[in-house]
Design brief:
single chain; 272 residues; alpha/beta; Rossmann fold; four-stranded antiparallel beta sheet; 7 helices; 22% strand; globular; binds adenosine-5'-triphosphate; ABC_transporter-like_ATP-bd; P-loop_NTPase
Length: 272
């Protein structure tokens, strides 16, 4: 199986004092955390807490980022990081008038151009279609796929270059329980067998249990980080969701986070 670059050394992502302003507001506030290599780190928190903004900062597409943010040993946004990171946004970016295989052939040609790379392209396209379990639909037009199948095509595109770091923004939204389970199995294969680092966001707390490690976010801040077990133990909670609520109450009691909730209601669509 292909090795995606496990390296026991530095964390894949290291952030210190990471701050992002959007529309004149601070939406990420002095974050400090790291993301270990070869593991699945879940980025969990309610809608609007800043998960997508943080992911965009990591992949280098977010403006007005201050503080320190190192990704795979380089500053976030360094062009040399591009082939080493796979990023899947919430909106599947596929061409509806091409088949699944044609979509992947196209992106593979961008990644590995030239006649000399033809065999390599064919091998990687077949591999990623298998990875996302779309072999039976490889010749279907993307426009005729279900929402979940389209998002798996986007994931396949991100897997093409065998990236060391995969940043997946709510990849399981709208999927049925069987597909969600299958995708999480794939994430574990990518991390465990291929050494990839995954950062996966979700606002569904039950997905937390499937991660090796969690970053719990609320209102632009990291509320807590650690393994699901450790977070449950530390808060004496039966589930990560209960642990999250406990931590929210604790933060309220110590007077830490929070700008007024009303200041945080800008529709997400205006962000793009
Ligand atoms: N262009 C913008 N101007 C002002 N505020 C913005 C802008 N874009 C996003 N925001 C705000 O930044 C905050 C973080 O948004 P972000 O999309 O990162 O949250 P999220 O946790 O990913 O939410 P969701 O789960 O709904 O995708 C939100 O409160 C949002 O309203």
């Amino acid at each position: 199986m292909m090795n995606y670059g496990r390296d026991p050394g530095d964390p894949a992502v290291q952030a210190h004092d990471l701050t992002v302003a959007r529309g004149g507001r601070t939406v990420l506030d002095a974050l400090a955390f790291d993301v270990p290599r070869g593991r699945i780190t879940g980025l969990l928190g309610p809608s609007g807490c800043g998960k997508s903004t943080l992911m965009r900062a990591i992949v280098g597409t977010q403006a007005k980022v201050t503080g320190t943010l190192d990704v795979l040993g380089r500053p976030a946004g360094d062009p040399r990081l591009r082939p080493r990171i796979g990023y899947v946004t919430q909106d599947p970016s596929v061409y509806d008038d091409l088949t699944v295989r044609q979509n992947l052939d196209y992106f593979a040609a961008v990644l590995h151009p030239g006649r000399a790379s033809r065999a390599r392209r064919r091998e990687s396209v077949t591999r990623v279609i298998e990875d996302v379990d779309l072999t039976a639909r490889a010749d279907a037009l993307a426009g005729n796929l279900s929402g979940g199948q389209r998002s798996r095509v986007s994931l396949a595109v991100a897997l093409l270059g065998a990236p060391e770091l995969l940043v997946l923004d709510e990849p399981t939204v709208g999927l049925d329980p069987v597909l969600r389970r299958d995708l999480w199995q794939l994430f574990h294969t990518l991390a465990t067998d291929r050494g990839a680092t995954l950062l996966v966001s979700s606002h569904v707390m039950d997905e937390a249990e499937r991660c090796h490690r969690l970053l719990l976010m609320r209102e632009g801040r990291i509320l807590a980080d650690g393994a699901p077990d450790a977070l449950r133990d530390r808060t004496g909670s039966p589930t990560v969701e209960a642990a999250f609520l406990h931590l929210v109450d604790e933060a309220g009691a110590t007077g830490r986070p929070a700008e007024p909730a009303a200041a945080r209601t800008t529709p997400k669509e205006s962000a793009r």
